[in-house]
Design a protein that fits this description.
This protein is α+β, with helices and mostly antiparallel strands and about 350 residues long. It is built from nine helices and eight strands.
Length: about 350
Amino acid sequence: MTKLLKTLHNWLGFIISLIMLLVLTTGIYLGGADLFKRLDNKGQVYSELTHEQKAEIATKVLANYPDATGVKLPTEMTPYVDAYSREESIFLNSALKEIGSQVKSDNEVWRFIFFFHRNFQLSDPGKHANAISAILATVIIFIGLYLWWLIRRGFKWKHTLPKNGKNSALIKSHIQLGLIFSVPLLIMSISGAYITYGSWGSSTLDDNRVKPSIAQADNLQAQIIAAQQMWPDSELVSVAKPRKPEEGSYIYSLSFNGENPLGLLQTDTINIDFYSGKLDSAQTFSDKGLAYQAKYSARFLHDGARMPTWYLLMLIISSIVGTFMVSFVLVTFARKEVIGRLKARAALHLQNVDV
């Protein structure tokens, strides 16, 4: 049984190693781009705003930039205002003075690498190949941990980095790095597969529920303040216009950073009908149903986009380590199974010629 698992671990690891190498290296780029974006504070220093100040900023920005589809308010992570649309982001300070902009079409390199990471630019076939490789990577990691458990001999830091390029040193480093980074690598593999095959689930809202008026109709500022007062301890992060307004209503969304076990950001939402001032819905993360929670968690546990910066940094480091681990697999397997067998066949051929 152990021999079978070892063979499966080696061959399966080698077969999907090239896919894993592509996914990990593109993931490093995407994570690094997000990290540098967070480090760019646009010259602003975060200062906490009152509920009234946030409501005023959101109201003025949406009035001054009618083409914007929403506004992101200052947070510790991004201490500036972002009036965004599908085509462009305009950055402003808290006094609403423009401090920069970004045309999203200028970021074609990022888009190319994102979709290469997601589906290798092959649409659905690439997406499924990626997800299946993530499932296989999960199996490989669990087999590797089990095989180590059978022959565990303690934890030795000296084996973490290979002393030389010999197979034995590379394998010891592969095992040691796998032990240290097994948890984040498993998180990335499992969440990557779940993003493709998991379900968002249906809404937990009752369509026949009462929708109370919370503020004056057609008064955006008053409605935002009233919404914030519903969750006084949550941080208002953004206000977004409806994508497809229905006739007779204009339901916009407010996103909040609330409490949840994973530390995810922007998980809680309040929807308000601007024309009537009525509350359409108010849902925290725990209100949105198990399927939705699982899909949302997988999405951002995988790339760290709505996670604290320390978590994003951990994913980047784990991807770098994973790249080395996969490279070690390619080198040692090629030496042993490919080059070794070719040499053995050549030696046998020479032997037969001599005979």
